[in-house]
Automatic annotation (TrEMBL):
GO terms for molecular function: methyltransferase activity. The keyword Cell inner membrane does not apply. NCBIfam families: fkbM_fam. Keywords: Methyltransferase, Transferase. This is Methyltransferase domain protein. Coiled coil: none annotated. It comes from the Bacteria. InterPro entries: FkbM_mtfrase, SAM-dependent_MTase, SAM-dependent_MTases_sf. The lineage of its organism: Bacteria, Pseudomonadati, Planctomycetota, Planctomycetia, Pirellulales. GO terms for biological process: methylation.
């Protein structure tokens, strides 16, 4: 297991030798203060404390108004975020409550962090599925832990008697992820700073919040990869996989642990990205059906398909933004025929 406190390099044992590779050292995660925000006069280029303090206060006021507006009206979240978070300094580090913990966010990185700050738990599309299947005391594996919002959700669900294995290869995401683990004193989380796939090798990852495996020579960092079955040695009860098109490779490398433990599997499928890695949805689902006798599909409600009343009720009265797919095999065929290009989720389990 890798120690998440080691930010400059990652390693693991192989045949008695210790293999190492360098990663870019993440920026220390320190919450920004009023005096840290610097604004420059267009003519003089001078920075003053008064200007900095005023600028930071204006940011805070705008953020507060944005969160209140979003909570009350719950519409046009992207448009609201773009207006509320314009002209941010970089980095712009702050926290908000999420699942009873403090979520550390760099608001300057992407729209995802901004929407998490505005919407909180409502931004996590699949939260109702997780609530249904993750129980106290469980051992959970989070493949593609990103910046840690699922880790915090899992921690709330499993309590102190459970355990979380978090896997995230992106150096850019690791700064926030580590802050969310250490800042909330989550001692039952094991963090592996690696990628997982079907074999042991070195791969490149792309930059950005939705990091993933990249074509050689186009990534921001080289990271080690190994099969999930070699990482997860102890029994696990629930596995979440979100790897932006690399699903087939990850499932193949996880096959032994899936067959051994029969954990509930939450898999996010990206039909438009799978072909980049020589696979498709049918291949992934067929492999899972060798182990699981019950596979359910879910996709996101689409506003244009519903009446105004249903859209309002969903925003205020219904905690889940996902709906069950009635004809999963038909959707799989459409996805592989390039006629269903949006992301959807499957729950694989034995009943």
């Amino acid at each position: 297991m890798l120690n998440w406190k080691d930010s400059s390099e990652s390693s693991w044992q192989k045949n008695g030798e210790r293999k190492r590779f360098a990663n870019p050292t993440p920026v220390p995660f320190i919450e920004i203060r009023m005096s840290d925000v610097k604004t420059r006069d267009a003519k003089t280029k001078d920075v003053t404390v008064a200007e900095s303090t005023l600028n930071w206060s204006n940011h805070r006021i705008r953020w507060t108004i944005g969160r209140l507006f979003n909570h009350l009206f719950r519409v046009a979240e992207v448009s609201v975020a773009q207006k509320v978070f314009r002209n941010l300094p970089s980095p712009c580090l702050t926290t908000r409550n999420l699942f009873g913990y403090r979520m550390h966010l760099d608001l300057s990185r992407s729209l995802s962090q901004q929407l998490l700050y505005l919407m909180g738990e409502r931004h996590i599309t699949e939260r109702a599925l997780i609530n249904e299947h993750v129980k106290p005391g469980m051992s959970v594996v989070d493949v593609g832990a990103n910046i840690g919002y699922h880790v915090l959700m899992f921690a709330q669900r499993i309590g102190g008697s459970g355990r979380i294995t978090a896997i995230e290869p992106s150096p850019e995401n690791l700064t926030e992820l580590k802050a969310n683990i250490s800042g909330n004193t989550l001692k039952n989380v094991d963090l592996y700073e690696i990628a997982v796939g079907s074999r042991e090798t070195t791969v490149e990852v792309r930059g950005g919040i939705n990091s993933g495996i990249q074509t050689e020579g186009q990534g921001i960092a080289a990271v080690d990869m190994k099969p999930l079955s070699e990482v997860v040695r102890e029994k696990c009860d629930f596995i979440k996989i979100d790897v932006d098109g690399y699903e087939a490779e990850v499932v193949e490398g996880a096959f032994d642990v899936l067959r051994r433990d029969r954990p509930v599997l939450l898999l996010e499928l990206h039909p438009h990205l799978l072909p980049r890695f020589g696979s498709n949805v049918q291949t992934v689902v067929a492999r899972l059906r060798e182990i699981y006798n019950h596979i359910e599909g879910y996709d996101q409600f689409r506003a244009k398909e519903d009446s105004v009343i249903r859209r309002v009720l969903r925003r205020y009265a219904v905690p889940d933004k996902l709906r069950a797919i009635d004809e999963l095999d038909s959707v799989i065929e459409l996805a592989d025929a390039d006629q269903h290009n949006w992301t959807f989720w499957i729950i694989a389990r034995n009943v």
